[in-house]
Amino acid sequence: MTAMSRAALGPVVRPAVIALSVALGFGSFAVSNSASAADASSASDGGLAEVIVTATRRTERLQDVAVSATAFTQEKLDVEGLRSIDDLTRLTPGVTFQRNATTSSGNFNDEDSDINIRGVDSTAGTSTVGIYIDDTPIQGRHISFTSFNAFPALFDLERVEVLRGPQGTLFGAGSEGGTVRFIQPSPDLHTDSVYMRSELATTEHGDPTYELGAAMGGPIIDDKLGFRLSASYREDGGWVDHINYSTHAVTKADSNYQDTVVVRGALKWAPTDTVSITPSIYYQQLRLGDTSAYWPSLSNASASNFDNGNAQRNPSTDPFSLAAVKIEWNAGFAHLTSNTSYYSRNQHSISDYTQFDRALFGLSPLPAPGDLGTSHDADMQRNFYQEFRLQSADPAAAILWSAGAFYSHLNENTTETVFDPNLNSEFETAYGVPLCTPQAPCPDGEILSQPVSRIVDRQYALFGDATFRMTDAWKFTAGVRVSHIEYSGDLVYYGPFLAPTAGPQTPLAVTGSSSENPVTPKAVLSYKPDPDNLFYASAAKGYRPGGINGQLSSICGPDLASIGLTAGPEIYAADSLWSYELGAKNSFLGGRMQLNASVFLIEWNNIQQAVYLPDCGQNFVENLGKVHSTGGELELQTRPLDSLLLDFSVAHVDAKYTGTVCAGTSACTGASATSQPIVTAGDRLPGARLRRVRLAGVCESQPLPAAGLSIHDRPNSAAADSGSEQWSLRSHVYRIAADTESVVANRSTLERIRCVVVRAEPGEFAPGPIAYTRHQHLGSILRPHRAPSNHRDHDYVSPLTRPVGRIGITMRVEIR
pLDDT for 671-682, tens place per residue? Predict the structure, then answer.
């Protein structure tokens, strides 16, 4: 921008923030003192920062929205040291997130995960949680062991919004339990800005962690054309050594590293005062060096030495891109928004099947030197979206309304090919007959091929809502979404891994299609007697479409017979739920304290869940009855002193089946039972019982003098008049935090333990959380572990969070 164009805009002032921080234990200690106008306003009167959200697709204060939600600005993400979805969900009440590398839904890939909100948890079918980048959903289906969701990195975000409860009216069929929205900064047509973050840390008995990222934006042509560019690279150091389990020689030290590259570019063009066009492109690549699962027999956990004796590493690469064009038109009486986007993903990985193959066929679970079972896995998505949304423009009108249309075409294909050259000879030695047959040969040791496992979803939807201002304090909102959903699928599998007759000429193949017409209404009654208090009651319906099952092989016959079936179901039906909620949002002490609370009741019907068949190593999806989920969340934030911010939250979720479910028509309970039930009344969904308490505090000192810098919290009037640039430097003294959390899963097969030690000194020390899943078979058909029944329970311990310490330093710079 030229000096002349700057002068035309009037005085330009850029307050900046430089924050230097220390990261100890599991969180980064980083606090800055300005991120937005709202923050500055709050700081001036000693109150809490106001957070602006678009949870209802309108720009509102978080405290004014009759939705249970938690929001994180970029500053808060930096303050709390949040770098990934794992970190984010740990600080969000009512949300459970866990890695599934060694569970029955996983494929020994640490990127595999399960996220649920308020106990609406399923590792089958489409996701129960909508994952949005700006206005585009990127969540996928769980088609097979090799499919799972991708999540964007937490860099250069305007904010993250976590919306609890079904959001089907505004966000569609993928938001049955809730929605997580990653909202990126829009190019600014008036003001330049720069944001930078760097980090350097060491990991106990592991590799260093480092990050460098920068973003910049501003006008190219004042009021007409602006840009935003950002790029970051982060490497999280590994702490598990990959070793040869026979010789104990280290083959790759700290092999479970991961690195993330993110690049984004956006332009905003305003050809007129009422129209803007914003094209953007987002690219991310995540690489994992290996699984974080380790072998206790080779490790010394008390000394933080962790070793993995798998025959080979389990690397993964997950690149995806999102291209979008957003068009906005202010028509005076209403705002029209069009969002067109295309999402492309090419995740691919290698999984070590050496032990799994041998355990599955009853061979030695400890392979001979030279044995190698390798699974080449991929998950490819090609998704197109188009949405039009028209909203009333006057926020003070007696009726606020919005209406829209949505179309999506989702194409997801997962593939898997397993090679194990020595398995055939070992099988023949053990049983006297070869594993490979003329019908199902093993070319180059290929024992399984899944070339196609594709589901194509098409959705057409109309949606709308209206808010009626009955009085100055009372409002009523009613909304509905009417959809037509079509899905079709092709699933092809073959190889002696499945059956001696399942060859390329006689594969297990399924082709199917179906359509549905869901209606998802929502109603909210709210009472706001004054600007500081809001009370509301809501009822909303959530929905997920059905899908297609692959054909099970003949070797699954005994597994199926044990639950009263002779074959797996060809399709599974849609499921749906009703959620009822009471909530309150209150501010006290002149804005120095906020208390948000909500309680809920969820009735979830016809639930889609994966049924794992332990002896043949395959699964299918079935509708498993009804779950009753109850609980609530409470969030308290207060600033008792200008330099002290306290944050407390507590959440409770309890989701369990209300009845016993038999898979077949024969009795599975009582004295006449001929099969075992799939679930029993009182069983809880895996990971869907949560109790969490969190307390955190941040102390900030007064601004410190610094040579050569003028020190201001905000630019003063003299600085504004002169147009000079002022810098703000603030030191940060303490951060204290405590977390407690427990998760009880179905039949107690999953335990999660969190332990935290708090020191009232600079930084935070947290030798926990530590959480493990044990790879074992406890006789539960729905056990959350993928291992044959003869797989030894001490072979793996898979930490859901890093059981080692990390200390480092983070620098954050923001210039506006």
Answer: 778 888 888 888
